[in-house]
Amino acid sequence: MKVVILAGGLGTRLSEETSSRPKPMVEIGDRPILHHLMQIYASAGFDEFVVALGYKQEVIKDYFLSLRATSNDFSVDFSSGNVVYRETPKLAWRVHLVDTGLSTLTGGRIKRLEQIIGRQTFMCTYGDGLASIDISALLDFHRRQGRLATVTAVRPPARFGTLDIEGDRVARFVEKPQTSEGWINGGFFVFEPEIFDRISGDDMPLEHDPLMSLAADGQLSVYKHAGFWQPMDTLREKNLLEELWKSGSPPWVKQSAAIPVG
What we know:
Layout (H helix, E strand, L loop, with lengths): L1 E6 L7 H4 L8 E2 L2 E2 H10 L5 E6 L3 H15 L1 E5 L4 E5 L7 E6 L6 H6 L2 H4 L4 E5 L2 E3 L3 H11 L3 E6 L7 E5 L2 E6 L9 E2 L3 E3 L17 H8 L3 E6 L3 E3 L3 H12 L16
């Protein structure tokens, strides 16, 4: 099953980092957030990706073209031009990099991938958010519901830190926890191929007519994920993800498996 990652937006709210690269290429630790996101799927056994490109697509293309070389030792025989890699560890990913237009909106980007995806179920998410989501459980839920689409609902991060107060002192301070009320679109979709029939062209956002019409027709299931979810829309959120990575136990990484690099 293919996994679509929407990675073509301008990333204007993170302009400090995106003047020279697309937002999915902003690094958390020593790897782009795109790499972390793909590893979430790969750790569940889904390792064929279709990356919808747009803004500064050449940066993402260059990354994957050079990933094997930059992540491994190798020997070059200049007389023959042969390159022998000493691979450790090895990624088993298959990655399709597709130009979906500079100004195309999210629904239009998916529509442009119809030929490469074919008439089959596929997964899809945004290229700038990480979660501790169980991908296999999400897919099982979608199949049990039997609807055309499933969206993952998440608790949004709170805008401000929380103070637990005892008398006149703060007993506990929590920086930007997730709220306990309300659900929002967290990405991590599962779609049946009929989604293509609900997208008219490049100027259609996925979040408007396609999802709205599915909901109106009773064809949009919701998978509730109450665990960790964090977008990277601002420099503050990027720094938060960086600190979680430095902690040694980032919540989006299964602790039984390290992130392979190439």
